[in-house]
């Protein structure tokens, strides 16, 4: 369900000061602190603190935490750009196969555990 539609439903409940907490599955559209449902609910219901859903995988919590560390943001952005550079061209992918004999893992911006193999590959290939 779209966050705007959910916001309209929540607003229509007229819960006022009784709404003191909110938690979603961690999806950016729901939990986004700028324009997601969390921000809209917090604006209307001042006491509704956001609590990250405990049932959601810890990797999403870690991923969102990394967004607040500038060096991590730069590192993973560069890593994703490097992987995309090779994966979006069959010619560059072949060159990578010939010279490095490995391929980059695909990058998933929302999942920490999907980026871990890519980080390990780069570390083992470039650093070691």
UniProtKB/TrEMBL annotation:
Residues 1-15 form the signal peptide. Keywords: Signal. It comes from the Eukaryota. PANTHER family: PTHR45749, ZINC FINGER MYM-TYPE PROTEIN 1-LIKE-RELATED. This is Uncharacterized protein. It comes from Psylliodes chrysocephalus.
